[in-house]
Amino acid sequence: MAIAWSAAPAEARESDSVRIAIPATSLAGALAELSREAGVSIGAEGALPARRTRAVKGTMSVEAALAKLLAGSGYVARRVGANAWRIEPAPPPAPLRRDRTPAPPEAVVAGDPIMVTASKRRSRLLDLPLAVSVADVGEGGALRSDPATTTAAVASEIDGLTLTALGPGRNRMFLRGVADSPFNGESQTTVAVVLDDARLTYSAPDPDIALVDIDRVEVLKGPQGALYGTGALGGIYHLVSHRADTGQRSFDLTGGAEATTGGGLGFSASGVANLPLIQDTLALRLVGYGRTIPGWIDTGGRKDSNAQKVSGARAGLGWDIDGGWRLDLTGFVQWLGADDSQYVYAPEERSRPAQFAERHDNDLRHLSVRLAREAGGTEIVIASGVTWHEVGDTYDATVGAQSFGLPDPQTLDADRNYRVWDSEARASGKAGALEWLVGASALQAHQRGDWTLNGVGQSLLVDGDRLNTTDIALFGNLGIPFGDFALDGGARLFRSEAGETQALLSGSGLRDLTRTGVTPSASLSWHPSEGRLAFIRYGSAMRQGGIGADSAGLPSPIKGDELATIEAGWREEFASGARLDIGAYLTTWENMQSDMLQSDGLFAVRTAGRAAIYGAEVSLSLPLGLDWDVSLGGTLQHTRLVRNDLGVELEDQRLPAIPDYVLRGAVERRFSLAGRPASLRLRLRYIGPARLSFDPLLDRPMGNYLESGLEGRIDLGRFDMALTLDNLLDGSADQFAFGNPLRLSTTRQFTPQMPFNAAIRIHTAF
Predict the structure, then answer these.
(1) What's the confidence (pLDDT) of residue 261?
(2) What is the per-residue DSSP string for 403-425?
């Protein structure tokens, strides 16, 4: 007896992806639901096995959905028409041949649609009318589970993403030239770090989260005030983690070692366990990792003084609830510490005279809950997360701290504590041809900073800051297609309240600020054919003001920033698998806040003036056939302060820390070695010239250096192995002309490149 499920006729589905939300149910029921949702006919000859299928959710092809539903059933799907499929017994299995050749971190299998969720609804990359890049770290075997894969690895593959080079846990992140200061002061960061649906950072430096068991990193470029609220001036750095899989038990283990020329040895390990507790209903996913990073700076008699350690753990509990609902609970911790800083006092050197150790800690704890319904035509997400973030730095104070009046100063401790509580409820879906999104959010951020000068047997609090911020908002977005074109508009209505207290040597100041406003966005896109997208977009964002300093260093109110960007882009996927992305942008930045170094070596926020930024980016991924792949990219940026409110004359109007241009390229070859799949990938990136600061006394040149690396991988059957070589030419150019704020005004400082480094990782999964 033949069994068939059919739906109303629809256009052919050979290459289209459709949104699927099939709950865990019987195989027959799941096929009937797929037929209804995808608008296709599915038939079977005879009765199908009475087995329960896993839930299948997301945007995918009908072929992919059928493969998921039939996995392990002994049946396969065969296309018998444009919109018709037949379920048949699977043919006898061929002799087992295991092929797990890992793909490079940024690679995506040709033909698979790249999906993005940072836009707060799941969308194909080719449908998004804004500048966005995706680094896929969900594959890659040993490198997928490597604790050394961090923000710097993403920045090396994403055009327009810039990091300072103080070291892991100390760096600031900038996108598309939106850089206010190279210093970690008190102002809100211009790029928000988001884990799944919860914001991790508000004013803290990049926590440099190890990308162990992270599926992908989505980078939204340009102001995102309409979606993410205050502070998202430059864009969003969005980490998407692997969720607990309720249908399959799995384990991943990775171990490795590394060595640095002229430095020490390092070791790393990570483990991932996915444990279904109730089959197809409840699962626990556990992640743990650790790494010791060899030092390579000699300080006096202390060899390799800047060694570092990082360790972390993540636990996720996933519950697939009836009716298409899913509940996820996540806990995450990471501890990062460095024994010393990594700057020197002479170019091309990797040693310096004896001084006190300048230790650094960046510790993060995070809890979140997410309840979502993806079934049916409307997606609903309710999420809340809280993050505690502690950042501590110690500086040698034997030079530059005498003005504070403490006899024989030795060290300066900068201790900063942050807490961010981010909550949001949103819904999205379609109404006919219209695509819509509505939501509400509330964010509370607390920031506390204390700068303490330590002498022999005594200490002195030289600066302190307390900042409490509350943002509540309503936001929405509407997409209206007409022919090959689509008009997309969004806005965020917000109310922001900030209360700040500064405890200075001269006294304390208090100011409460309240601001209500709207940050809009709008775009016009054109799909001339499948695989092609052209768009123009307007985006905006703002940042709350606070207490800063005037030209005399006295407390002074600071206006909030306002930033707007007009951009144009062209994105294309070719039948050969090649991908091209071109973008150009113009940004205006009013009342630009900047953390400035004062004469006493401390930082204060000042209004720098009005800035203008314009630039262009291009990236190309090109499969050449015969197992060769090439990836190319480049960024050209012109960043200028066009109105100077600093009260000092500037000969160089460039914004700080942003290179004038960046060029990158990579070539990969896949081959067989001793009968096993293997690959080699060579990558190069040249960072052009940049400057450190607005201050003419601190206007130090930096940049103009080459990054290089070679990655080799081989599948050994039960194990796969990766060998990574970095800084192939052992260059020691100056990446960042800063290290110690107390000495900066009187002494040149240089941050050389890490020497040639070799690392090996071995990975297994079962």
Answers:
(1) 94
(2) GG--SS--EEEEEEEEEEEEEEE
Residue 96, pLDDT > 50, answer no
**What type of residue sits at position 38?**
A
Residue labelled with tokens 């900038």: 174
**Smallest Cα–Cα separation from 268: which of 205, 211, 193, 326?**
211
Q: Can you list the domains of the chain with their CATH numbers?
A: 2-89 (3.55.50.30), 236-765 (2.40.170.20)
User: For 199-256, what is the HEC assignment?
Assistant: ECCCCCCCCCCCCCCEEEEEEEECCCHHHHCCCCCCEEEEEEECCCCCCCCEEEEEEE
The pLDDT, as a whole number, for residue 140 is 54
Question: Where does residue 444 rank: exposed (0-12), middle (13-18), buried (19+ CB within 10 A)?
Answer: middle
Give the amino acid at 351. Answer: S
- Please list, in sequence order, all residues whose beta carbon lies within 8 angstroms of the beta carbon of residue 251, skipping any fewer than 6 positions away: 271, 272, 273, 274, 765, 766
Output the CA–CA distances (angstroms, integers) from residue 733 to 10, 161, 348, 690, 700, in the order listed. 60, 20, 6, 13, 14
CA distance between the termini of the chain? 40
Note whether 509 and 547 are within 8 A (CB): yes
State the Cα–Cα distance between residues 448 and 204, nearest whole angstrom: 11
Beta-bridge partners for 370: 328, 383
- Joined tokens for residue 72: 């392990």
User: Which candidate, 287, 357, 284, places its Cα nearest to that of 327?
Assistant: 284
Six-digit token string for 13: 């589905």
| Adjacent-strand bridge partners of 135 | 217
Q: What is the pLDDT of residues 746-760, one digit of tens each?
A: 899 999 999 999 999
Copy the structure tokens of residue 119.
């836009």
Phi first, then psi, for residue 35 (nearest 5°) are: -60, -45
Q: Beta strands 757-765 and 250-260: pairing type?
A: antiparallel
How far is the C-alpha of 669 from the C-alpha of 680, rounded, in Å? 5
d(CA 126, CA 446) in angstroms, rounded, equals 38
Q: SS3 for 140?
A: coil
For 342, the token pair is 């990594």
| Cα–Cα separations (whole angstroms), residue 344 to 243, 360, 546, 750 | 43, 17, 34, 5
Say which residue the tokens 């969308």 belong to: 123
Task: Give the tokens for residue 166.
Answer: 């103080």
- Of 247, 142, 120, residue with least CA distance to 714: 142
* Alpha-carbon Rg for the chain in angstroms: 27
| pLDDT tens string 415-451 | 999 999 999 999 999 888 899 999 999 999 999 999 9
Contacts of 674 (CB under 8 A, 6+ apart): none
pTM: 0.85
* pLDDT grade for 551, boundaries at 50, 70 and 90: low
Which residues, listed in sequence order, are joined to residue 559 by a DSSP beta bridge?
none
